[in-house]
Amino acid sequence: MYTQQVGLCKQIVREHYGPIVETVVDVLLREGRMHLGQLANRTKLTGPNVRQALAVLIQHGIATHALSKVGSRMFTFYSVCLKSILRLQRAGLYLALVEERMGSEGLAIFRTIMVNGLTTIGNVREALGIAENGNAAKIKFNSVVAKLVRDRYIIAVNTVDTITKVDRIMQEEVVEVEKMTIPPTAKELLVIRRKILEREEEEYQSSTVVGIKRRASVDISADHSSKLHMGADGRVNGFNNYDSGDQNGHSHLNNGHQQQQQQVDAVDDKQFFRAYYDRLDVFLRNQQIVNYFSDKYNAGAGALVKSILRATEQHTRTCRVKLSETVSSTQVFQHISAEAPLIDSIDTSKDMFHQKFDANGNPIVDTSSGTELSREKRSEIIFALLEVIHTDSSGIIIKVDDRGTGQYRVNFERAAITLRERCVDALVHEKFGSVHARLLRVLRDKQKLDEKVVAQATMLPIGPCRARLHDLALAGIIDTIEIPRSADRNPSRMFYLWYVNADKQMRSALRFVYQGMSNIIERNTKEVSARALLIAKTKREDVILDPSLLTDGERKELNNLARIKQKLAIANVRLDSMLLVIYDIDPQSAELQLLQ
């Protein structure tokens, strides 16, 4: 845990939940798990305030609890999850992603669950203002919720999900040990722990969808449509935009259209659900991979990689997955968008004699759009792009079989490493400059090198090269390794080689990102507090009714504040994307976070 990380988490909690919750989180982060009495003593808060703060944290999935015995008494200990706190900064990206994939209806439901934390679908329906007795609106609402559950945007929550995972595994271990007649040996205990983890993984990978009771067959008119509109009171009106029929309850059908039978999943109204951010992190990771190929090659290559990732998304639930499912080139051809810019993405001509020329001798360039390509030309471009991207040096797209037109997989572990290296290069370039970034790339490619060899490879004089290497070493980006010439390991008789320590580099980059995000929040708070009187004036009823009461200078100051806050928000999103790339999407980091 980093000092910058703790400070950032405190600022995020204060911004979202207030100073009382921030005080409780600060104590839990710095001193570890505690029971209620210890928290009250450390925070100097009253018992009711501590209970309410813990209830808020548990409601939003930030805190977990576990019952443990201390002496002869049983206490409930509480702890917080750092990753859940840091994800609060990513709320805007999550909402934009859900709106893009699930539409405005799914966005309204997901946003309600995100704001309220653990909640039932019945409470969501009431919050959105959907009538309980409105049959058509309820059917539409249930279908959208069922799609969110099936695609793992939201998941059902049980009582054991709020218990700290480490304690839950320890309790299962105690139960297994009690079944034995004699104390287990170290080897038997290792087997028990392995079985428990395998059982946890099997339950996690289960395809059973919890929270959907049955499949109900309902009659819906073929011309029914619904569009979601947010009312002035914040309620959703789109689910009620159905042609409910005449006063006798008969549905109006245009031109004698027959009613269609539509299968709609019935969601349990009493089941609690929460937003499943691990699934959304997969989508954000996939977008980063698409951006990598788009920047390195062109938009056509990015669209092709996007189609491969879309074909494998159904079986990729979290960033813990290291390899995707196998995808054939036929599936890629089916999933790629018809509007994908493939026409200029790669040259598939055989040789120069196939080039067509006009009357003046100039080569004829095909300016048709991607939608006007013939099926044969389109498939030819796709197959050529597949050959290019699977031979890329990053090793993200790998070809596993040559049967037919080929089978492909995505190596997410290599993708995480490539994206992280790209992100660190950008950080070094911004903080130190292009020369330092070149030094880092040379060391990454060549590995352990003497400073003279580094100077020759980067075409720098030995003095400036040594100074820049020390700059990177002080920042934790690179490290040295000692190679003794003799057994006495005398420092004067040693070789010192420079190399890239990936773990140390990641920790240094994380400190840069955490500190940058903390600075952004502090700057935002300072800018708002400096204009507190002006902001309070804009909230007065007379100013709301008559904006002309504001002077030109005050309007200019408000516009300046809005511009500053917009720039800070963009910078915060950029840093959060770096955090996602450096740590969250790494399969090894995801495995380390399983017990949090």
Protein model, in words:
The chain is mainly alpha-helical and 596 residues long. The protein has helices at 3-17, 19-31, 36-43, 47-59, 82-86, 91-116, 121-127, 135-150, 165-178, 186-204, 277-296, 299-312, 329-335, 375-390, 412-431, 434-446, 451-458, 462-474, 502-530, 532-538, 541-545, 552-584, 587-592, and strands at residues 34-35, 63-70, 73-80, 119-120, 154-156, 212-220, 260-267, 272-275, 327-328, 397-401, 407-410, 479-484, 494-499. The chain is built from 23 helices and 13 strands. The chain has a three-stranded antiparallel β-sheet. Strands 4-8-5 form a three-stranded antiparallel β-sheet. Strands 9-11-10 form a three-stranded antiparallel β-sheet. The two termini are 13 Å apart.
